[in-house]
From TrEMBL:
Coiled coil: none annotated. SUPFAM superfamilies: Isochorismatase-like hydrolases. This is Nicotinamidase-related amidase. Gene3D superfamilies: Isochorismatase-like. InterPro entries: Isochorismatase-like_dom (IPR000868), Isochorismatase-like_hydrls (IPR050272), Isochorismatase-like_sf (IPR036380). Belongs to the isochorismatase family. Keywords: Hydrolase. Pfam families: Isochorismatase (PF00857). Residues 8-183 form the Isochorismatase-like domain. One of its GO terms (molecular function) is hydrolase activity. It comes from Paenibacillus rhizosphaerae.
Length: 189
């Protein structure tokens, strides 16, 4: 049972057209995300989408950045149209915020914390791609910011199943409650 005095938000992170097809090969992989989003909406828990995107010319990217540094040479001066949009399978409603970040953590270069504080959110339910990327980085930073945390283990996907297992079974439980989407939905009742 959720603490009635806490206020939660579901973060749906990096579920973009450029990312989802590389990790989720079928609709079954996306079902836990859809379950969590539907439950959050039906329980009036805000759903906040987080995406990574850059300005034309990539002024935010240093060539020293190993993850993003090669992007300008791979994609040209402008990001590919539509690739940064949220995937159709988890499409946001018009009233749901879409936060844009410029690094791995959902907080990096975004106004996420402003939105959370303005809405007195103190508990974050994390979902996204990849477990070893945005989920790990956001969990660490959110824990340092004193948010209570829940990770939806089956609404996180990683290219390496063993890395996903180690994170969800051994690392994340030190700073978050780790539940499946269905377990989380049941906890709301």
């Amino acid at each position: 049972m959720q603490n009635p005095e806490s206020r939660s938000a579901l973060l749906v992170m990096d579920m973009q057209n450029s990312i989802v097809p590389r990790y989720a090969n079928d609709e079954k992989a996306l079902q836990p995300f859809q379950t969590a989003i539907e439950a959050a909406r039906s329980h009036e828990i805000p759903v906040i989408y987080v995406r990574v995107a850059f300005r034309p010319g990539y002024p935010e990217i240093s060539p020293r950045n190993k993850l993003f540094g090669g992007m300008p040479s791979r994609t040209g001066s402008a990001p590919m149209e539509g690739m940064m949009e949220i995937h159709e399978s988890v499409k946001p409603r018009p009233d749901e915020p879409v936060v844009t970040k410029v690094r791995v953590s959902a907080f990096a270069g975004s106004d996420l914390e402003v939105i959370l504080r303005a809405n007195r959110i103190d508990t974050l339910i994390l979902s996204g791609i990849a477990t070893s990327g945005v989920v790990l980085s956001t969990l660490r930073e959110a824990a340092d910011k004193d948010f209570a945390l829940v990770v939806l283990s089956d609404a996180c996907i990683d290219a390496d199943p063993e890395v996903h297992r180690v994170l969800t079974e051994k690392v994340f439980p030190k700073q978050a409650d780790v539940l499946t989407a269905e377990e989380w939905v049941k906890s709301l009742e």
